[in-house]
Every structure is written in C-alpha cells, then in structure tokens.
Amino acid sequence: MLNNKYSLVTLSAALLSSTPYAGEDHHAEHDNKIEKIQVTASRLGRIVTESATRIEIINGEEIQEKALMRPGNISMLVAETGGVRVQNTSPALGSANIRLQSLYGRYTQLLSDGLPLYGGSVASIGLLQIPPTDLANVEIIKGSASSLYGGSALGGVVNLISRTPSDELEAEVLVNATSKNGQDITTYLAAPLSHELRASITAGAHHQQQQDLDNDGWLDMASYERATIRPRFYWSGENDANLYVTFGAMKEQRQGGTAKSAVTPDGTPFAQDQESLRLDSGFTFEQPVNEELNFNVRGSAMEQRHTHVYGIINENDNHDSYLLESSLSGYSANIAWLVGVAYQSERFSSDEFSAFDYHYQVPGLFSQVDYEASDNTSISFSARTDWHNKYGTQFSPRMSVLYRPGNWTIRGSYGQGFFAPTPFIEDIEDAGLSRLEPLNNLEEEHATTASIDVSYVFENVETSVTLFSSDVENATELEVINPLTESTDKRVRLVNAPGQSEIRGAELLLRYRWHDLKITGSYLYTDATKQTLFGAGRSPLSLTPTHSAGAVIMWEEHGSHLLGFEAYYTGTQHLEGNPYREKGDAYWHLGLLGQITLGKVSYFINAENLLDVRQSKDERLLLPQQAPSGRWTTDLWSRNDGFTVNAGVRIQFGH
Fold first, then answer.
1. DSSP string covering 36-59, please?
2. How far apart are CA 301 and CA 117, in angstroms?
3. Nearest to 251 by CA among 272, 275, 231, 230
4. Which stretches of 289-357 are assigned E, i.e. beta strand?
C-alpha cells in the first residue's frame, strides 16, 4: 500500500503531473478546516502544504473575482499576488510581462496545464491575449525552476490550470463593457461526450477603442480587436490510462502610436501597430506501469506570426516553439522519484532582418527526488542537464527543504539556472529590430536564487514571512553605440552587463477569514541593484519599487452577493532614459467590486483606479526626440488608464 501522501498523485505522478486531471477538479478538500490543494508545477504532484518546493496558489474563488475585473486577460489575476509584478513594457501597445521577486520578466515561464503553449520565451504582448475564463487555479513557483522546466524558467513558473469537465453539462457566458469603450464576451462549455471522453471549449471576443486621455496626439490606450478559441479533450481509458489534448487559436489586431492626423516632435506621424496570429497544440499521455511506476509523455507545438509597424518600418516575423518529453516516475513509502528526457526547440525568423534569426535546439535529461525524512520533514532535489546547440552544456540544480513543527511551516530553497539570450529584451520588443546591431559574442545569462519562508497557521489566521535573494550574471542590456554623437540615426547593441544584478528582499503576508469575510494584507521590500559600467559602483535596478503593499477586504456569500475593496501601494522607482525625472512617484491604486447573484445570473460592477492615477497627468509619455533604439516613449512606471468602471453579466448553465 502506498504512503497516503503519494497515493493522491496516481495521475499527476509522472512528468506531466500538470495534466488537468491531477487532483481531479483541483478543487480544495477540507480536512479539519485545513485547505488541501494538490499542486502539479513541482512535477511530483504533492499537496501544497506538504510540498518541499514552495508553490503559491491563486484558487478558483480568486480567479472568479479577478475575471470580473479584467475578463479579457490574466494581467489583473497575477498582478495582485505578493512578490509578483506585472510590468508594462510598451506604453504604445500596452504589452506587459511578469516579474517574479523583481527578476526580469523574460525569465518567467508561462505554462498552460504544464505545457508551454505560448512559447518557451513568451512575448510581452502574450500576457494580454490569454483570458481567465476556463481557469481552475494558478500555481506560481518563484526563483529558478530551470531544474524542472529548462532555461526559460530561470526566474520561476506561472502554471495556468484549466477546469476539468464534470460528468454533467455546464456552460457560462460573460458579457462586459468598460467606461473606456472596451467590450468583452467570453464563453465556456464543458460536457461528457461518452463514458471515457469529456471535452470543453472556451472562446472569446474582445474590443478596445483607442484612447488619447491627455489629448497630446499620442494614444494612451491602444485599440485592439481580438478573438480566441480553445477546445480541450480528456480521455480516461482502462488501467488508469489518461490522455489530454488541446488546441488553441488567437488572432489580434492592435494599434497604437500617434492618433489620426497627429505627429511626434520631429513632425512626422508614428503608427505602432501589431497583428498577431497564434496557433498551438499540446497533449499529455499517462499510463501506470504498475502500482508504483508511472509512464508519461507530453508535447506541444506553437507557431506565432507577427506583422509589426513602427512608423514607416514594417517587420514581419515567425516564432516557433516545440517540446517533447518523456518520463518515468516511481513511489515508495517515503520516496518519490522521477527521471526523464526532453527536447525543446525555439526558432525565430524575420522577413526583413534575417541577421537576427536563431534556432535553439536543446535536448536534456532531468530528475527529481522527494524524500520524506520524517512526519514533519521533507526534502526535494531536482537537477537538469541541457545540451544547448549554441551555449553548450548547462547544469541546473535545485534543492528545497520543508520542516513542519505543529502549526509552523518552514521552507528553504536554493536553485541555479540559465537563460539563452534573444534579441527581445523590453526596449527591442517595443521598438523593433531596425536600429539593433546583429548579436555578437553574447554569453548565456545565469542566476542563483535562494529563499527561506516561515508560515504560521492558527484557526482562521495565516501569516508568512519570506526572505529571498537572487544574483544574476551576464544579464543582457541595451547599449547605445557612440552615445556622444549628434546623429539622429544612432544605433544600439545588446551586451552582457558587467558584474552581477543583486536582488534582496522580504515578503510579508497575512490572511484572515471570519465567516463570509476575507481579509488579505501583503508587503514587499526589495533592494535591487546592478553594477555600473567600469565597476564604478552600483545603481538601483530601474522600474523596481523598494516598497509595495496591498490589502483586500472581500465579503462574499456564495450564490448571493459579493462586495470587495482593494488598495495597492507602489513606492518610488528608479528610472533610466527618462529626461523628465530620475524617480517615479509613489502612488495608490484603489478599487471596488460588487456582484449580485440571482439564481444562475450574476450582475457585477467594478470601479478601478478610484484616485484616477495617470502618469500622463504629470508629464508627457512622449520623448522630446526619438530614443536610439527607435522608441518614442518613456517607461511606464505608473498607471496610465485613469479611473475606469466596468460592468456586466455572467450567466451560468448546467449544474
């Protein structure tokens, strides 16, 4: 008979352990009033409170709340998690990436049910093209997870877990409209097709009208038209065999830059548009070999076509991503283990700038061992060796320790990983390749991360403190060629930054629940610096606030009503390349959410940014002259949408 802690992971036991089947519906189970949620991002499918690897959960209840605030994408969903910052990377298009504990956004691996359906390195705009409609929960690993998922997970993992269809028909339609002339409609349908086969389909249509809120001729909010569709199939066969298959398609037209008939300071119009088409597919198959062994194979493919417009320059490119993995896992009374092989491929090709084309091919071997040393002590060790066709052999280890005396939980982790550089750091994603010199002599980026967190749970109160540290070597950054020349046609190049970027910080979290009232408070302190040129000292990392905090009060009675208030504080941030200031001002973001449910119909209204914070109120986003990279705007360090109200209706069908 298998140990209880491992008998729960019959399906998620193997490498995929991210199959939506894992833990059945991913619903919480309650045992002595302690929530038990099975997580899959750690590969071996442990109960979150018993996993040595710290995995933070955004549960289904929170997802439903955030979906009312931002039905079109997941940015709001992840942005309000402690230690997670959604950083705007393009004021022109509105794109953003996810920074985990202040590490660069390009280091965050975004997964869907454990599969990289959005690519190995997700473009910043991709975060805004994923609706939260069919999510059951979200799992977040902070710190290097290269040992589990390869080089794209140098800073951590965000794993989006989809709903699993039940044995009855269920459906949902959500219609939303905003005061900034935006509209969303999303649908979800799930049903059994036979005794062995279940299916779901999610689709959405989204529209935003362009907005020039300060009437300066530069659009503060880009317009877009987007459509998405994703069917999923779940098959259960004899002998506990399981197959999960999904397909996805997304098409979007996004337009920003100067408004009609407006010009930049050099007297010319500058349209900044992007048309995207993404097609993807993925599968996971799992077959128990016997009572103690599981075989797993999974794969994914993604192709994304972009058509960019940067003023008078057009850029057309393709991004392709492929994954194939196979693993074997086993379980005994105190040990769970996994070994596997993987092949990952990332390809970029540009029609106009072929000098930047690359094709990364990365075969790898990985393993993980979880050892339960005693009833309250567990150890997890994982390691991966990748053979990168350009950057050679890379070894990525990670070790985590869990100690649980009574109501206390103490975890420590240490990990190392790598990231293969591409041309697409934030400035280049926003400005294109036309002014970038071909990449030359770049080295791979490396990071070492460590953390220790202490949690205490007593009745309805949960508190935790986390101390974390990251050292990043060879971080790629943009450098201006001949910066002292007066030429208006300057060029830039990517270089490895000297020395290390050092990030030190602490997270505090408090949760309290009393009947239908839920209160959450968080605080994040970050000391993030990098070495200046020629070793002359250290300077703060830009767009990294030292202090940030949040509080949410939610009163909810399921099936009746919901009323919530949230307040988020963002402290001052160091800025680079901004001619108007060296530091961004601190600001507050306040919001109110209300919902009334009558049977199967819910009516909701949400007010965001009650203080009407908008960066362009104080200064122009537009630069006095075009930056050497080709960019026309400063970084967006604050909000730029102002006070916004959205309202709508959610209609549910079935059970």
1. E-B--TTSS--BGGG-SS--EEE-
2. 7
3. 275
4. 293-310, 313-331, 335-350
Quote the tokens at residue 357. 């084309």
The answer, yes or no, to whether residue 15 has pLDDT greater than 50, is no
Each residue's pLDDT tens digit, 283-333: 999 999 988 899 999 999 999 999 999 999 999 999 999 999 999 999 888
**Which residues are registered as beta bridge partners of 447?**
417, 472
Phi, psi of 486, deg, nearest 5: -90, 0
Question: In this structure, what DSSP letter does residue 165 have?
Answer: P
Name the DSSP class of 495. E
In angstroms, what CA-CA distances link 82 with 34, 86, 145, 548? 21, 11, 18, 9
| Mean pLDDT over each residue of the chain, to the nearest integer | 89
Contact of 54 with 413, CB cutoff 8 Å:
yes
Length of the chain: 655
Amino acid found at 67 = A
Residue 31: Cβ-neighbour burial (10 angstroms; 0-12, 13-18, 19+): exposed
d(CA 249, CA 128): 14
Residue 323 near residue 299, CB atoms below 8 Å: yes
Tens digit of pLDDT for each residue in 237-249? 988 899 999 999 9
Q: How far lies 3's CA from each of 22, 223, 331, 332, 443, in Å?
A: 17, 55, 8, 7, 45
Give rounded-to-5 percent helix, strand, coil for the chain: 10, 55, 35
The answer to whether residue 229 scores a pLDDT higher than 90 is: yes
Identify the helix (H) or strand (E) that includes residue 199. Answer: strand 197-208
Distance CA 213, CA 614 (A): 9
Token pair 């750091």 is found at 425
Domain that holds residue 387: 4-654
Residue 242: partners with Cβ closer than 8 Å, 6 or more residues away: 11, 19, 21, 234, 235, 236, 284, 285, 286, 287
Structural domains counted in the chain: 1
Instruction: Return the CA Rg of the chain.
Output: 24
Tokens of 283: 């599968």
List the Cα angle 283/288/294 in 5-degree steps. 80
* Spatial contact of 632 and 626, defined as CB atoms under 8 Å apart: yes
Q: Which bin fits 32, alpha (ψ -120 to 50), beta or left (φ > 0)?
A: left
**Look-up of token digits 């942005």:** 79
Helices vs. strands in the chain: H and E counts, helices first? 5, 35
Give CA–CA dist 412/55, Å, rounded.
12
Q: How confident is the model at residue 155 (pLDDT cuts 50, 70, 90)?
A: very high
Max CA distance (Å), the chain: 77
8 Å CB contact between 100 and 156 = yes
pLDDT grade for 21, boundaries at 50, 70 and 90:
very low
Q: What is the mean pLDDT of residues 576-582?
A: 93
HSE-CB at 45 with a 13 A cutoff on CA atoms is 30
Q: For residue 515, give both structure tokens.
A: 């009947």
> Which CATH number is 526's domain given?
2.40.170.20
- The DSSP 8-state label assigned to residue 621 in this structure reads S
Distance CA(353)–CA(330), nearest Å, equals: 48
Burial zone of 560 (CB within 10 Å; 0-12 exposed, 13-18 middle, 19+ buried) = exposed
How many whole angstroms separate alpha carbon 568 and alpha carbon 42?
Answer: 30
Contact of 420 with 151, CB cutoff 8 Å: yes
Q: What is the pLDDT at residue 11? A: 31
Considering the entire predicted model, what is its pTM?
0.91
Which structure tokens are listed for 258?
A: 């100067």
